[in-house]
Amino acid sequence: xxxxxxxxxxxxxxxxxxxxxxxxxxxxxxxxxxxxxxxxxxxxxxxxxxxxxxxxxxxxxxxxxxxxxxxxxxxxxxxxxxxxxxxxxxxxxxxxxxxxxxxxxxxxxxxxxxxxxxxxxxxxxxxxxxxxxxxxxxxxxxxxxxxxxxxxxxxxxxxxxxxxxxxxxxxxxxxxxxxxxxxxxxxxxxxxxxxxxxxxxxxxxxxxxxxxxxxxxxxxxxxxxxxxxxxxxxxxxxxxxxxxxxxxxxxxxxxxxxxxxxxxxxxxxxxxxxxxxxxxxxxxxxxxxxxxxxxxxxxxxxxxxxxxxxxxxxxxxxxx
Length: 320
Ligand code: ASP
Hints:
Layout: E1 3-6, E2 9-18, H1 22-25, H2 28-48, H3 53-65, E3 86-92, E4 97-104, H4 110-120, E5 125-127, H5 128-137, H6 145-148, H7 151-163, E6 177-182, E7 188-194, E8 215-217, E9 223-228, H8 230-235, H9 238-249, H10 253-268, E10 272-277, E11 283-287, E12 291-298, E13 302-306, E14 314-317
Parallel strand pairs: 4-5
Antiparallel strand pairs: 1-11, 2-6, 2-12, 3-4, 3-7, 6-7, 8-9, 9-10, 10-11, 12-13, 13-14
Helix pairs in contact: 2-3, 3-4, 9-10
Bound molecules: aspartic acid.
């Protein structure tokens, strides 16, 4: 798949992209489908209740953070030191408000911290010990490191340490989570949350919390959440480049996404993908690798969840 196109979308989510095969997933394939579907259902409920695009994306992303299957919140990948350092960002397209956190070690839901920074502080980005302190000061939900560290992530780190690679997450797949949504007023927003990359140096910051790299939203163009090898997404200012191509180059969302993901990123060697959405409900999922955990829910409550090539997913209706 290069690009999958959606219409009448309310919410598009991803759970990471990379080289994903059915053999690797085995029986867990259904588990991934179930968690993605549940995140879409929760987001849809928020949309039906007339909540904002920021409410919709943070509802969906919090649900994914709480699942140990994904590389965000519980189940985040580990640094070389065996610790968890989480990054997250939120951006609102109506006024370009943004909030971002990096190297969090205690927040149960990093996306809620990013949202809090956006809505309740005069800052855009908080890092490291200061970000952890912000979580405590504002009594946002906290957990000890053992909550975040799963046996599967420990095993991945052990393997990567043994092979000596300072590398990507296991099997070259990433597992970061993200969401883009449009509310019933046409406002759009983007959110991304991640543990980063397995065996990363402590203090390493990826693209997810960098506004314009892994996360961006502007009502005039689109909302974007990225996943992949973050250093390349920073170097191409991936998310903002897609928006700029629409705004200044009059490109369609589809063409802008393909140009950045399948040309600019690929030429540098940056693997991964994006989801993006416009205020009219036009959405895309674009990847330059073999798979992406992804899903969409439409205004009529049709939910689609997929992992592999375009058209491989399952549609069901949840409107009831
Ligand atoms: N983009 C993330 C990072 O580099 C990783 C991912 O997407 O899984 O931190």
